[in-house]
Amino acid sequence: RTGRASVGATTASSRSARTSLSSKATSRSSTIRYFFYITNDPLLTPAEVVFEANQRCNQENLIEQLKNGTRALHAGLNTLNANWVYMVAASLAWSLKAWAALLLPIRLAGALRHLREQQQLLRMDFRTFVNIIIQLPAQVVRTGRHVVLRLLGGMPHLDLFFRLLDGIATVT
Questions:
Q1: How confident is the model over 95-109, as pLDDT tens digits?
Q2: Are 108 and 164 in contact (CB under 8 A)?
Q3: What tens digit of pLDDT does each residue of 140-157 get?
Q4: How remote is the C-alpha of 169 from its chain's centroid?
Q5: What span, in angstroms and rounded, lies between the C-alpha atoms of 93 and 155?
Q6: CA pair distance 87, 6, nearest whole angstrom
Q7: Cβ neighbour number for residue 117 with a 10 Å cutoff
């Protein structure tokens, strides 16, 4: 349920959500959590106020990932310039994740799944991105004049990786 109250130039919206909790020791119990949103824009509907608040939370999650995921703001080097270079390199690594998601080709067959994977990659934590896309388990085989990389076939995100390679190949 969503409610709305207006006082002067300030608008407050409330939203309640029913959550169910269960444990092995007790039977299923239900609680109601209330969320309150306050804005000074009287033109927004309560649903729009909640949407704007959730968008802001996405931005705060992005900042949190820069601070803790890539550790861009935790550079303990000895000079200001070295710390700046570390922060820029970490920010570029974070941007690489977003570029990878935007380069994913969306094919007609499986378009909904491809769009869902693109959104998943955009919202993914940086550590998860590194583990899924960057640090791939591979076997290096050296033959006469060639080096062959064999990727592990049982990885769940291997098709996503190869679609990303196709997207990069079309750009270059």
A1: 888 888 888 888 888
A2: no
A3: 999 889 999 998 888 888
A4: 24
A5: 23
A6: 44
A7: 19
